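Lab notebook: predicted structure, single chain.

Context: the supervisor wants predicted structures on file for every construct in the current expression panel, including those that have not yet been purified. This is the next one on the list. No modifications to the sequence; it matches the entry in the shared construct table.
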Amino acid sequence: MTRGSTLPAHRLPQLPDLPGRVAIPALPEQSRTSRSPNSLEGFNSAPADDIRPALLNCLHSHRWTRRLTDHRPYPDLDALLAASDEASYDLTAGDLAEALAGESLPVLPDDTYEAAHMALDAAHAAYEARFGHVFVICADGIAPDEVLDHVLAGIRSRLTNDPEEERVVVAEELRRLARGRLLRAFVFRGAGNCATSPNGAAPGKQQEPPPH
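Prediction complete. Output recorded below exactly as produced.
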């Protein structure tokens, strides 16, 4: 993911349970092509090989991607989003490590001051040194000029977590990121009238991550 010129790329440490894995870069919003269906019917009927790459851009987990692909067809958008949540909650520690290997920090606005990039760089270096992976946070609904403060506050707050507490938070942030990206990657007709919040649970389904 492109970042400000003054913010050097963060290198993730080699994950012992994922030898040789190369991080999948976060891609910009999907363009609407014949290989990226823009309706639930198209999503349900498209060949699996066409669906998987787009799903991997939503969450860089092959287990999550297979679950959503193999459980088609979905009767409606809420069912797909609920399946996304359920698959996210079922990810193992290794799956979470795989997903994190494909993440990067949110992009800051182009006019962000150099000092702000330096502050984010320092905060993230402290986080990465403590937990061994990139910091992830869902910024859906946050105004562009508030993203930096949102990320910095999140890092500083979560630095006080112990590793197990942070693993739970990370899993939840990845779940929220996957939902938002899923909605943006597949521009479903009628999705604008859906009562489901991109960051919440599907109507009638209370979501609580199970303990691992």
